[in-house]
Amino acid sequence: MEKYRAIPQGYMTAGEVAKKMNVTVRTLQHYDKENLLSPSAISDGGRRLYTDKDIIKLHQILSLKHLGFSLSDIKNRLIPLDTPEDVAQILTEQADTIREKIANLSQSLSELEALKAEVLEIQSVDFKKYADIIVNLEMKNDFYRLIKHFDSETLDHIRNRFDRESGAAFLKKFLQLQDEAILLQEAGVSAESPQGLQFAKTYWDMILEFTNGDATMLSKLIQLGENSEFSQELRQTQAKANAFIEPALAAYFSNLGMNPFQEGGT
Q1: For residue 119, how many other CB atoms are within 10 A of its CB?
Q2: Helices 194-211 and 232-256 sit at what angle, rounded to 10 degrees?
Q3: Is-contact 252 194, C-beta < 8 A?
């Protein structure tokens, strides 16, 4: 790299390049440090000097950055490529990455709007409850609207009983049993039949898993199940499922000689 006492014709300082290309001098220094764009010369006073050729290379870097490529991608993956096919492949991969980011951002935007609506309905600042709503939105749990109706004791119980993985597994089991109840009802299976009783046992075991045997939690679940926060579609699905679940549970408890919905459970 040549050195000059003064700035010769055809050279520009870092400040001039930065102004011309709408970047900062610090950006040029960083590109130099990363061995991505080094100045063509250095003045005797240590000033970086650039040529039109450097400007063209900077333009290429900035254009590729605009497409979402990192400096590492530009330096290590793009610049060494020799064929249009190789470049096209890298561009295809970048396009796929951007599509994924767009999908994630769209999901984040939907979650933000949903959380905002819940915050306004809660009418109090409760970041623990906000976090629970966000987790359920991420899990695509349509029952997130019910969280604002949970008291602190209920939410603490859920947090202590389930983490994100086990919570997602429980939700999946609940939805599967709900679908199974609808299918049994549509198939005309009797709630008192062995199949109906076995379903009721599985469903009741799931409830006990959730409540951990806490009777107060059971009454709260019943209240939540009657909440009007469900969308019309969810209410219709729940009604179809309950048409089989309720008589199946009644038959199951009758066989056991118990009624857990009454005080004392008998």
Answers
A1: 16
A2: 110
A3: no
Give mean pLDDT in consecutive 10-residue pieces for the chain, a chain of 266 residues. 66 94 95 93 87 93 93 89 90 93 91 90 83 82 75 82 84 90 95 94 89 73 60 79 92 86 56
For residues 197 and 183, is the Cβ–Cβ distance under 8 A? no
* Main-chain phi, psi angles of 265, to 5 degrees: 75, 15
pTM: 0.58
Cβ neighbour number for residue 200 with a 10 Å cutoff = 25
- C-alpha distances in Å from residue 31, one per residue of 75, 83, 236: 10, 25, 60
Which tokens hold the place of 67?
């497409």
Q: H or E stretch including 42?
A: strand 41-43
> How far, CA to CA in Å, does 2 sit from each of 40, 41, 45, 201, 251?
7, 5, 13, 85, 93
